[in-house]
UniProtKB/TrEMBL annotation, chain A:
One of its GO terms (cellular component) is plasma membrane. GO terms for molecular function: phosphatidylinositol-4,5-bisphosphate binding; protein serine/threonine kinase activator activity. Residues 18-159 form the Sin1 N-terminal domain. This is GK21478. The gene is Dwil\GK21478.
From TrEMBL, chain B:
WD repeats lie at residues 1-28, 73-106, 158-199, 208-242, 250-291. InterPro entries: MLST8, WD40/YVTN_repeat-like_dom_sf, WD40_PAC1, WD40_repeat_CS, WD40_repeat_dom_sf, WD40_rpt. Pfam families: WD40. Belongs to the WD repeat LST8 family. This is Protein LST8. GO terms for cellular component: cytoplasm; TORC1 complex; TORC2 complex. GO terms for biological process: positive regulation of phosphatidylinositol 3-kinase/protein kinase B signal transduction; regulation of actin cytoskeleton organization; regulation of cellular component size; TORC2 signaling. It comes from the Eukaryota. It is found in: Cytoplasm.
């Protein structure tokens, strides 16, 4: 076991414990992109590597022997950033993974605070089943037939010879030669009316529940499907009722937005008099069981409800983000800049810019207030506009927060403008990865590509056709003429090859691509100023996908890039602008 | 229970109870984890719902909030394909793939078996004659039976060799017996009963090539003027019993139409299909009036008990 005096171990243990026990999912947005222990280690390594000349094993051995007799003020050694100092670490990749604390096992079936033994639970289940069974009458299907004692048990009933309508129809058909009825008329109703006809007449079509499509997420009586029980307080109800939660049971795989729809469905059934807006107006908020709504942002619409462990939630109209989360947001950016002092100013700039862009702080009237007090004097259209506007900004903000979280997409990589191969594209705050799916065609499997986010500069939708979209991701090309311009922050994963490597596998151009790749990240040096040379070349990957996914990807990636605001990206945009200007001026000259 | 309810059951192992005129689901009951619902019927007093499936028969109380069954049959073998009640609720019949049709005395506590008939092949269908003593049955080897439960006599007819009878129906006026098979053919016999209360006699009346595939259900309308056949070809066809010509064709494309039920005035029809949606049709205009959505898999059985309010 690692020592408790190891600060680094403690830090990473606290972090992992927090993430694994957080039911809210909030930690993901706040912490996941932002692994401090890792950052410190990385930062240290960069400094250390740039300064060291000796072999790694030697320095590690030195550090180890040093640690034993070290005084507290001694400069930090690499081993201070290692959780388990006793372990021999062969390479950098392993270092990264070892910074996690031990695996914490979660037991999904235990929702409560206290762990109970399995046998106790089983016994209780058996007991309940027994009590239930006692209420059910059981009959043996295979028992011997016993003829009924009473002779009248089977009693023949005289069937009323004919219905009253029958003679009518037969007469009409027999005498029908003269007056032929159309086939639709020949079944007249004869004045008979059923209860169903009567009830249908009383309930016009619009009474059909408009949330009916969400009824299928009902979890009651689902067999063999995990379900979730949640008590939902409904903020739109009036005083006495709103204090009592609506008890719902949904299928665990339902997304939050679908849960909202299902709650609306249940609400409209139970309280038909309460007017409901469309589901986009509502959100689920975390709630204490005394129905106090907490000041957290609502649960993410896109997440499955199984992800959250709440027993109580509140359905309320979407409100502007609470101030608490805004502070968190600032804090996150602050932390990030601390991890790499060099970027501090540029990140701060980006933060200000980003906040400005999404206009959270631009002093506009609180749209939530406008929502709540709607219907007074303001026109409906105006109100709707403000709601839409507000939702848009809210989405923007959520996008920003979630951009660094890893997500993968499945799409086609376009190869030499002709071949397509299906790949998964993984995007996180640290890197992008392109991994080819298994056995697309007969040619051999290509190596997966992993690129640190520092080298990615831009993402755009290059071409829009009717159904398909060409998505282009720009990154810094490695095959620059001079080696001094290799990426500075690339520490863990070497960028493997260019487009051609992936595309043609073992062919000649592929091996050429590998030859161009930077030999080792260890050789990179911290030369901030050298970035700004215009010798940098950029390359791009092209993907073929649908518009929706393309927008998602470019939003996400550009959010990340925007927040990082790397000099490379600025350089890229700068270069591009110049090119455009040149083209424009040429055109103008021609005309 | 004043409101009209529609009960549906299917491959998602659940039974749902709907408010018929609004399409709202009132109640969902868990059936058996290992079985689909083959058939549903309600007791004549409308308080209980009976459901049968693979190795199980269960009766549920519709008036309580409890979703557990009140009666459960044990050691049932194979599929139970049909069940139904005598009009006073005195007895219930069940038909199964164990070759047997059983009569259950529901007045006894607990219910007990009072008659058994052996069809010598898996029984796919059974229905009760309006005279309340004869049962029509259809088996997998193609036989159609008429069985008098009182005298225990029976008659057997094989209308088509190498075909399996999928459903049988007797018109409420007692005039016709219809049987649909897996080739899409529907056979009709006229039933005549003598005044000396002997068993009805069957006389071949008509053969309709109703569908291109499996017939799954056939049913007569309450006024006996219409015959309905549902099929695996994605349609439900309605035939006039006057001359057995096609009157309406309702289509749910690409889905099997498993079951259907008429309203008491024969103007409306509920269908159950493999897209997991039950529908209410206005027969006159062939238009869909309501959807009953909520099942996650195919709906294979439904039950609707209506009543006449005025004439």
């Amino acid at each position: 076991m690692a020592t408790y005096s190891n600060q680094h171990w403690l830090l990473s243990h606290i972090r992992n414990s927090f993430i694994s026990t957080d039911d809210t999912g909030m930690c993901e947005t706040v912490m996941l992109s932002n692994d401090l222990p890792k950052e410190y280690l990385r930062k240290f390594q960069i400094n250390f590597q740039s300064g060291r000349s000796a072999g790694k094993t030697k320095s590690a051995a030195l550090a180890k022997s040093d640690r034993i007799i070290r005084n507290p003020d001694a400069p930090l050694q690499e081993c201070d950033f290692v959780c388990y100092p006793g372990l021999d670490l062969s390479d950098d990749e392993d270092l990264d993974t070892s910074t996690h604390s031990f695996d914490i096992q979660m037991y999904p079936e235990v929702g409560a605070h206290r762990f109970r033994s399995n046998t106790a639970q089983k016994l209780e289940k058996l007991d309940i089943a027994k009590r239930k069974a006692a209420r059910i009458k059981s009959i043996n299907y295979n028992e011997e037939a016993q003829p009924p004692e009473n002779n009248d048990f089977f009693k023949r009933k005289e069937v009323v010879a004919t219905h009253k309508q029958r003679p009518n129809t037969s007469s009409s058909s027999s005498s029908g030669s003269g007056q032929k009825k159309s086939p639709d008329d020949d079944l007249s109703d004869e004045g008979v009316q059923s209860k169903l006809t009567e009830q249908l007449a009383k309930s016009p079509k619009q009474t059909q529940n408009r949330f009916i499509e969400y009824a299928r997420f009902d979890g009651t009586a689902q067999v063999g499907m995990p379900t979730k029980r949640i008590n939902v307080y409904l903020s739109m109800l009036s005083e006495p009722e709103r204090n009592y939660p609506l008890k719902i049971c949904v299928i665990s795989t339902a997304k939050i937005i679908e849960v909202i729809g299902f709650v609306c469905y249940k609400t409209s059934e139970q309280y038909p008099a309460v007017p409901l807006k469309s589901i986009q107006h509502y959100a689920l908020y975390m709630t204490e069981d005394n129905d106090d709504m907490e000041d957290f942002p609502p649960l993410d619409n896109r997440e499955p409800c199984s992800k959250f462990g709440f027993s109580h939630l509140t359905l309320a109209e979407r409100r502007p983000l609470a101030p608490v989360t805004r502070v968190d947001y600032h804090g996150q950016l602050g932390n990030k800049s601390m991890t790499s002092e060099e970027d501090k100013s540029s990140l701060a700039d980006a933060a200000v810019k980003a906040l400005h862009n999404i206009s959270l702080n631009n002093g506009q009237a609180d749209p939530g207030g406008g929502l709540a007090g709607g219907g007074g004097g303001g026109g409906v259209a105006e109100e709707e506009e403000s709601v839409r506007d507000y939702e848009k900004r809210l989405l923007n903000h959520i996008d920003m927060l979630e951009a660094p979280i890893h997500r993968s997409f499945r799409l086609n990589l376009i190869d030499k403008r002709f071949f397509k191969s299906e790949v998964t594209l993984g995007i996180s705050g640290e890197r992008i990865e392109i991994d080819q799916l298994k056995s697309t065609k007969f040619w051999s499997q290509k190596k997966p590509i992993s690129t640190p986010i520092d080298l990615v500069v831009h993402c755009e939708i290059a071409e829009k056709r009717q159904y398909k979209v060409l998505l282009r991701i720009w990154l810094k090309s490695n095959s620059t003429s001079s080696s001094t311009f290799s990426a500075s922050n690339c520490t863990s994963v070497p960028l493997d090859g260019s487009v051609t490597t992936l595309n043609t596998g073992g062919s000649g151009s592929g091996s050429a691509g590998i030859a161009h790749s930077p030999s080792s990240p260890n050789h990179s040096t911290l030369t901030n100023s050298s970035f700004l040379s215009s010798n940098i070349r950029f390359k791009h990957y092209d993907f073929d996908t649908d518009l929706h996914m393309a927008e998602q990807i470019s939003n996400k990636l550009n959010c990340i890039l925007e927040m990082r605001s790397s000099p490379l990206r600025r350089e890229f945009l700068h270069q591009r602008e110049r090119k455009l200007e040149k083209q424009l001026s040429k055109k103008q000259l021609k005309s | 229970m004043n409101q009209l309810i529609l009960a549906t059951g299917g491959y998602d192992h659940t039974i749902k109870v709907w408010q018929a005129h609004t399409g709202n689901c009132i109640k969902t009951m868990r059936f058996v984890e290992t079985s689909q619902v083959n058939a549903l019927d309600r007791t004549p007093d409308k308080t209980r719902l009976a459901a049968c499936g693979y190795q199980c028969i269960r009766l549920y109380d519709l008036e309580s909030n409890c979703t557990a069954p009140v009666i459960n049959f044990e050691s049932v073998q194979k599929n139970v394909t049909r069940l139904g009640f005598q009009e006073d609720g005195n007895w219930m019949f069940t038909a199964g793939e164990d070759h047997r049709v059983r009569i259950w005395d529901m007045t006894a506590a607990p219910p007990q078996c009072s008659r058994v008939f052996d069809c010598q092949a898996p029984v796919n269908a059974a229905c009760l004659h309006p005279n309340q003593v004869e049962i029509g049955m259809g088996s997998q080897n193609g036989s159609v039976y008429l069985w008098d439960v009182k005298s225990e006599k029976h008659e057997r007819i094989v209308p088509e060799v190498d075909a399996s009878i999928q459903d049988v129906a007797i018109s409420p006026d007692g005039h016709y017996l219809a049987a649909g098979n897996n080739k899409g053919n529907c056979y009709i016999w006229s039933l005549t009963s003598s005044p000396d209360q002997k068993m009805s006699t069957l006389c071949p009346k008509k053969k309709i090539s109703a569908h291109s595939r499996y017939i799954l259900r056939c049913k007569f309308s309450p006024d006996s003027r219409l015959l309905l056949t549902t099929s695996g070809d994605g349609t439900a066809c309605i035939w006039k019993t006057e001359d057995f010509t096609k009157w309406r064709e309702l289509s749910i494309e690409n889905y099997w139409v498993w079951d259907a039920a008429f309203s008491a005035d024969s103007k409306w029809l509920f269908t159950a299909s493999s897209d997991g949606v039950a529908r209410l049709w206005k027969l006159h205009t062939k238009s869909q009036i309501r959807d009953y959505k909520g099942h996650t898999k195919a709906i294979t059985a439904l039950s609707f008990k209506d009543e006449i309010v005025s004439k």
